[in-house]
Amino acid sequence: MQKSDNKRLRLIISTLVIFVIIPIVLYAGVVYLNDRKYYFISVVIVLLACVPLFIKFERRKPQPREILIIAVMAAISVAGRMIFVVVPGFKPVAAITIITGIYLGAEAGFLTGALSAIVSNIFFGQGPWTPFQMFMWGMIGFLAGVLGKTGVMEKKVALILFGVFAGGLFSFGMDVWGVISFSGIFSWEAYVAALGTALPFTIIYAVSNVIFLLLLAKPIGEKLKRIKIKYNILQ
Amino acid sequence: MALLKIDNLNFYYPEEIDSALKNINLTIEEGEFVVLIGQSGCGKSTLLKHLKRELAPHGKKSGDILYRNERLEDLDMKTAAAEVGYVLQNPENQIVTDKVWHELAFGLENLGLDTLTIRRRVAEMANFFGIQSWFRQKTVGLSGGQKQLLNLAAVMAMQPKLLLLDEPTSQLDPIAAMEFITTLHKLNQELGLTIILIEHRLEEVLPLADKVVLMDHSEIIYTGHPKQLLTDIPKNHAMHDALPTAMRIFNACDQEGDAPLTIREGRKWLLQQPVEQNCVSVDENYVELGLVVLEAKDIAFRYEKNSDDILHGFQMHVRAGEMLSIIGGNGTGKSTALKILSGLEKPYRGNVFVNGQKLKKYRNSDLYREQLAVLPQDPKTLFVEKQVRKELESMQKVAMKASAEKLAEIISLLDLQHLMDRHPYDLSGGEQQKLALAKLLLLNPKILLLDEPTKGIDAHAKKALAHILHALLKQGVAIVMVTHDIEFSAEYSSRCALFFDGNLVSEGDPRTFYSGNSFYTTAAHRLSRGIFKNAITCEDVITLCKKATTNVSV
Amino acid sequence: MKSFEMYHPLVLFYYFMTVIGMAMFFMHPIYLVLTFMEAVLLNFLLLRHGFWKKLMMYIPLFFIMAIINPLISHNGELVILYVNDNAVTMEAICYGMAMALMILAVIIWFNSYNGVMTSDKFLYLFGKLSPVLALTISITMRLVPRFKHQIHIITQAQKTIGMDYTSGSVWERIKCVTRILSILITWALENAIETADSMKARGYGLPERSTFSLFVFEKRDGWLLGVITLLAGISVAGSFLGYTTFYFYPTFSEMEWSLTSVGFYSVYAVLLAIPIVIEIKENIKWRYLRSTI
Question: What are the TM regions of this chain, as residue ranges (chain A) (predicted)?
């Protein structure tokens, strides 16, 4: 039985990676790396945080229709990012991820965000920022899903607040933490400088999130609901 | 042993009172080429989906479907997936992966085959279907015909015994469609593959069929050889409009016995009729024409600075109350011409005049309101709302001048009343097109541009469309239509023009135009060429046939 | 760079991850210069004409980073001048430049990675780890260009009913964009159901799915994998022994030119040169083959 051998091998490898290799790498990083240890550790942690959610999706053996809907939402945010470059940073990615999270749940939100990052980096080029982007967008979708379950997100105020929060979170993760941890220069001045340069972007992220959310949440939400009912998926 | 036996199948969709399938009994033998026909909404797609277990719709079902004497539900999962292949309508939607080779391998991966087997099967398919040269390409860049061929190859790689196809050529141009149908014929003849096909292009497909199954209101009303189809169905059944030309003429002339299917058989039959050759012709009737409302003068256009000209010295005009059809091969630039005429692309030389004024002088808001409207190839690109009613109301708001009476008038002209509460995406192709047209008509255009309006819609919907277009012509609207559909343009347009090499090479009223062409002409003309002088439509041939026979008998 | 790209994706991925991983952590000037030089050389061989244009983009980045560090970091002993009572030191300037060089080198290495590891190679590797996710990515990859095309079609159709996102006030434009996205989503979701049906019809979801690829792991891939591991192992060992360590603060540490340290430098240089060497070797072989025909 070649197939089940393969499966067992995969299981062994993934357990090995999670319980042995990653801790060793982390330890080595903390002990031996000087300036780059913060970047290194955060990349490992960020990847580590994504792994369980990916594994869960993998194990669940999702139906083709679920796979397709996630692929569609991710592809729309990537295509939207490519085409509507009216202002730099003014992108619908986060908004679409958030809406997916609200209407299809935390897992779908996470996957849409994370896949948007991976796929858009396949088109635009991978770099040291890929893991952060994946994590940030994924988490934004995940949180939206968690909040969406409570029904809070039906309110406009909640939508606006979350849009601003997501913009800030993304900017902090990508622009501030990403740059500082990568350059390894830690000081108050560095933080201030990074925050200062990132501020215009943070504002654009937040504003674009809010605008896209207010305009898109209802129509897209209705469409997702219709698909869920008509084709009996992700219920 | 029959390959497939359907035993008293009944089916209801959830929460529907009327049955979607009623008392279906059908036996399909190994190696048969079966064509399933019927008007849209008659249940033929529902029936076909029931034959593919994985796609069987949810609902209340009774009766049995036996595949090789075993109930379809009891088949082993792998057998069910591999032995019954299914090809859908839209070539784009069926492609799953981004690479051609991966698409070919996709089904085989699902079956859990090992790399060596997959390699061999994929190689076999690539050779049989002539895919080698684009084997490593991305699926995005393929043409529609290539995509549909790839879908067929990907299904065939799984080595099915029964192949089901639901209107596989409806989105293809005539040449790609013919190539696809020829491939199906080859699969049937050379491999003995059993095929059940739903198809609108009966002119090409019916001659190949061993068996035709006609469905009407959820029931099968005829099963048998296509030649005997006419004797068994009511004389004025709506399906007649969709039949091959030879059959329609044969039927209208009250003939009995085996019907001719192909042009060749039709000619042979016609020659045996007591008709004096080349004597009779159709009378011309002249129509008073309005002013020129849209004119293109000496247009040149290319997409990139260094590419070749797509339009070169392009001239055309259209008058109020006139319908101009632009026909021509695929990828020659017909659609580009339409974009120039509608102001979506700018020519680098020459001008377009709308009502005598240069098009570029118009503001968008003036041009697209009260002046010019474009019906896109895909009507769905205009749908925003979740209900037909809302769709029309939101458009009414955009078109400030559109009154409630105007809306009511359009709804009744386009026969949309019974659809008002439906979701636009739940409508059939023909209905979607009518809805899109209704939206445009709210803007009260004087010029209407249509891009392939008959693509993917059935004979009935085509007739309805022609009826609407003629009503608009009477109101003085000018219509320009770009199409592959020779039959439609011959029957309904006021003027036809052939697009070739960047401009219009010949034009004239349909009668002169099509009786002047020998290859690029209607089936009715090819059938009656040399027998009747200038017959170009079925109606022409039938009228002349009747006239000639009465002449002779008198 | 045909010959290097033809190696098995696993080998290529392993190579780039190893090199980029090390490039991020070795701040020793010799190592930095090696990383940078060979990054540039490889990238030039890969991109040729496009290369200089790309490099121009990076130059301002280099200077910005080199300038920012001395302004916010005042460590170091060699003071050049005082700005607002804050010392601007030689060490801080050098550290800033070293940092900039490292970041630049990493970005250029990533650039080469992007050129060599095309999406199908990445998906093949990813598919070994997580088949479902890899398939989802592959489907997304297919949908993106399709959606771009559809956005174009919708945009044109909307323009003819007076909705144009390229003109009008910002608010109107944004409204048009959301309208286009909204139309796209309905279209995409309804079509996606048919794609899902096509997957199901071809047996997706059966147990024991296999994965097929056009890639074959050959003997030479094994060899190269071994060589990379050996050279990387030596370099990492050198790092543990402190040969890659270099301090900028409080002041520069001594540069070492002992036999062992030069040995470690050379091993690292050879590791980075692997793609270039393979390319040259293959070129010579071709020329030889052609001349003997």
Answer: 12-32, 38-55, 67-87, 93-124, 157-180, 192-217
